[in-house]
Design brief:
Elements (H helix, E strand, L loop, with lengths): L3 H6 L4 E5 L3 H9 L4 E4 L3 H4 L11 H13 L5 E5 L9 H13 L5 E5 L5 H10 L3 E6 L5 H4 L9 H17 L3 E5 L3 H10 L4 E4 L7 E4 L1 H4 L16 H17 L20
Parallel strand pairs: 1-2, 1-8, 2-3, 3-4, 4-5, 5-6, 6-7, 7-8
Helix pairs in contact: 2-4, 6-8, 8-9
The structure holds 3-methyl-2-oxobutanoic acid.
Amino acid sequence: MPTVRDVRTSEEPITMLTAYDAPTAAIVDDAGVDVILVGDSVGNTTLGHETTLPVTVDDMARHVGAVSSATDEALVVADMPFLSFGVDERESLENAGRMLKQEGAEAVKLECGPHTVELTETMVQLGIPVMAHLGLTPQHVNQYGGFPRQGTDEESANRILELATAHDEAGAFSLVLEHVPSNLAARVTEAIDIPTIGIGAGPHCDGQVLVFHDAVGLSEWSPSFSRAFGDVRSEMESAVADYASAVEDGSFPAEAHSYEEADLEDIY
Ligand code: KIV
């Protein structure tokens, strides 16, 4: 089973996918993916929200518990939702601690900024491994006015580099870099000791992460930096349509799907 230590020192490209429920986690785990991120993207992919902002600690706890229960090998990382960390230290620690103590996660992910450097240090000292996340941090959607690429000028690129270094020094075991230019991702990867895991950050990171629904072709829309490695949406659409027509034309259930009780023969 990969541990945070294995991820931190991995010489191989690190594979990470999101999952939000037990059957999906089992598929991802059986495929040998190193890390399962229970992302707050559960808000968009599963709970029907436009953004991740409405996702609560209780939502995350429920999904982290489901994923942990079905995962034998992969490292399970719980994403901390909007305002569940960084406001009050005690509350941040209790929320993150809950994911490890009660729900079976082995680490948490924080969307980072200057406000998470000290918090990362405290969490790590207390035994809560932290995966940092910089670049596009979707919990800042209202500040960005959308989901634009980050680190595109010298000043903002330097800010990302500085924050990456600060979180490395604070003890984070890895860093997600989202939607940044690949040359910036290469520079950050070279500058810090912990592995970078990219999403929309080019090929120079130490690993890659995608949202499960995008990777398997289930999403209705996915970002241009993503790639669908399957067409699960079409498969599901065709299975559902076939089911409805089989019920309508009477071909389902057939004899093979039914059971007659011999003891009832004289009665009915
Ligand atoms: O919530 C999420 O799924 C994420 C990944 C896209 C990195 O933060």
